[in-house]
Amino acid sequence: MGDTYRMLETNNALLLAGDAILYFAALAALFRIRNRIGLGGFFCALGVMHFLETYLASYFYVALPLGIVASPGSTVLFTGKLMLLLLLYIREDAKVVRQPIYGLLFGNVLLFALAFVMRHHTLVPLTAGRGADFGFLNEIGGLMVWGTAILFFDCILIILLYERSRAWFGDNLLPRLLVSGAVVLTLDQVAFFIGLTTLTGAGLPVLIGGWVAKMGAVVIYSVLVAVYLKAFERPLGLRHAPRIWDVFDTLTYRERYEDLLGRTGCDALTGVLDRHSLESYGRRAVESAAAAGRPLALLLIDIDHFKAFNDRFGHAAGDVMLKRIAAEIMAAVRLSDFTYRFGGEEFVVIADGYNGDDAIAVGERIRRAIASAPSADPAGKVTASIGVATCAGDASGYDKLFEIADKRLYEAKALGRNRVIGARPPNGENPVRLVKA
User: Fold this and answer.
1) Same domain assignment for residues 303 and 221
2) How many angstroms separate the CA atoms of 351 and 337, rounded?
3) How many separate domains does the chain show?
4) pTM of the predicted protein model
5) Are 202 and 297 found together in one domain?
6) Which of 70, 59, 87, 90 is nearest to 17 (CA)?
7) In the chain, which end has fewer C-beta atoms inside a 10 angstrom radius, N or C?
């Protein structure tokens, strides 16, 4: 009896893996021919499967090896949907990703509202004893709305993690997919379980078993997405960045920035944008912020005594340190901020939306990150001096803004280095926005 049950559990696991491969192959095929039929078919297929996904996650569970209990709805369909939306983002952009999410959320809320209205109809049964189960419809509708709301945040988080993982894994696609999917689906499992146990009374084994099954599904889907991208999709070409008006547009803007780094305007040593990009984009960013009355910060960063570092440890070690410093700066700023190498050991960060206080805080975060950058020799630690200027508090033009930041940078050096200096008080006395180690 025990061997038979274990065989059934193994069979269920193999069937779930087969379900995942079939689901991905079908949806990926629709996605592959999007240039011929558009993305409507892909979106509709995702929407149709959403009801089945929620139904299965509510009622349909199978036994797997090691005592795991899981549902194909969460394991196969939801995990697959999220990974397919990440694929959509990688090949298209966040502006496209939001379309099915908004559509699903709107449709599920409409379903819930219509079900509430329809329960007030006087029904005529087709046959004796057969009637509408509004309790079931309300339960499913509530879970669908809850699940889609979670999906909205899941998509934002998985895109952010996928982008951030470039700094950890470079262009190695598989580990980026694995880490992004595993982290987000762990949080998703907890969030969906809260709604599921509230509406259905599901127990803790569902939470644990569902998580283990989702982690297995993440491995399968990550491999499938990586294989698909390598075998069937060509690299993206350059696109023009859209106007930023919501979080998905910000993500789109950032993804295209990352794409730009890999193609043009990129500093060959550090991987950040180069001086030419600063002159073109930086100037436009300041002009745009000034015209819209939106705050913007320009931070000019100079590595302290870097010539002495090169003289002591050699230029090869200096290059390694510059790469580390660039990575620390990128990690310390927001995804929507832009980092440039101005020349030598100088970097510039342009941070849209930051006022004077926020800009000083960012500068201090960068200063601390650089001071803690790892070095092969403890004596080879470096620090940075940072000058900060803001639009329109200090100036409304790029050239003037850069000039002010440059003056504050040299003031930071004159005051002992390893510090951040921003705006002066109205009376022109000592800087009030001064931070030092």
Assistant:
1) no
2) 5
3) 2
4) 0.54
5) no
6) 70
7) N
